[in-house]
Write a structure and sequence with these properties.
- The chain is α/β, with parallel strands linked by helices and 320 residues long.
- The protein is built from 9 helices and 10 strands.
- The chain is globular and about 50 Å long.
């Protein structure tokens, strides 16, 4: 296994060397091919690699690779958001989201996150904040269209151009144009209003290193409402070469509920936590109406039916 691990890490290092020498990370045949190879190399979850135990040289490479992945992902979203937003006026860009290469992954991730959220919440959230929504806010769109038809989504991004592109995507949709709101701000500057959200999503690319990720989490803990749910993206095994890892120790002030590691082509792990100091209801009742029965149990059933993969979901008991 050690030899196999060393071989896979060498493959990742070779791909990093090629990617780091590219003149541009904007979508092109060469860029798409290299990142496609990188993702394919990092997808297997049966490789027993702990990135915290790697050499300092490989750790530095991983940090740089994550930043390159984030930059390339931003260019890819910007590229497709620009194309979709420039469609003829009589066309709804949301009807063409399937042209985005990873749209099916977002459909799967959105369904997974909705099921896990339903499992840990007694009510339908009336307002959700997504921090780091980017030029193509697919998580908000997927959740709003297919899972939460009465919820308002507030999307935060530090880049005004990203918000302009994202707003253009939903502006022609009679439903989402009313339920998708965009805020241009650094989340670390957002203090008032964060306590109004039932659920806050923190994008994987907000905080590209451990220090900045923890800083963002600490800020949210300080300003979120007691009992509100924080949903984060993390990574597991080789996938940690693509995205930062969120550890339980990073969630001070939160009750850790679940860490879920997908074993299919959904790259990100899902971390769910609840802000301590309150419950999921307010003093005068619930934050919203009750959830309809969901198929959260299917999440466990799917994992259990996969034999060796059934240990990929971790549950944590409530902290009273």
């Amino acid at each position: 296994m050690a030899c196999q691990n060393n071989l896979v890490v060498k493959q990742i290092i070779d791909l990093y060397d090629q990617i780091s020498k590219l003149e541009s990370l904007k979508p092109s045949k060469n860029v798409d091919t290299l990142f496609g190879q990188l993702v394919s190399t990092c997808l297997p979850t049966d490789t027993n690699i702990d990135v915290t135990n790697l050499s300092e040289e490989v750790k530095d490479m991983r940090s740089n690779l994550i930043k390159l992945c984030g930059e390339a992902e931003g260019y890819l979203e910007q590229h497709f958001s620009t194309i979709l937003g420039s469609l003829q006026e009589d066309q709804n860009p949301l009807d063409h989201l399937h042209t985005f290469p990873y749209y099916n992954n977002y459909l799967k991730l959105g369904k997974l996150e909705f099921d896990l959220l339903s499992q840990h919440s007694s009510h339908v959230p009336s307002k959700i904040a997504f921090v780091g929504s980017g030029p193509m806010p697919l998580t908000s769109i997927v959740l709003a269209k297919f899972h939460l038809p009465n919820t308002t989504f507030h999307n935060f991004d530090i880049d005004s151009h990203a918000n302009t592109l994202a707003s253009s995507l939903v502006s022609r949709d009679p439903d989402l144009s009313k339920r998708m709101i965009f805020h241009t701000t650094d989340v670390l500057n957002a203090t008032e209003g964060l306590d109004e959200y039932d659920v806050v999503f923190l994008a994987a690319l907000v905080g590209m290193d451990k220090e900045s990720k923890v800083k963002a989490i600490e800020h949210l803990e300080k300003h979120m409402a007691p009992g509100a749910v924080l949903m984060l993206r993390s990574a597991h095994a080789l996938r940690a070469f693509l995205y930062p890892i969120v550890d339980s120790s990073d969630l001070k002030g939160f009750q850790l509920l679940t860490i879920y590691h997908p074993t299919d082509d959904v790259v990100n792990s899902v971390v769910i936590a609840r802000k301590l100091g309150g419950s999921s209801t307010t003093g005068n009742g619930t934050r919203g109406c009750m959830f309809m029965p969901c198929n959260c149990s299917k999440v466990h059933a799917i994992m259990n039916n996969r034999g060796k993969k059934k240990n990929m979901i971790e549950e944590f008991s409530a902290i009273e």
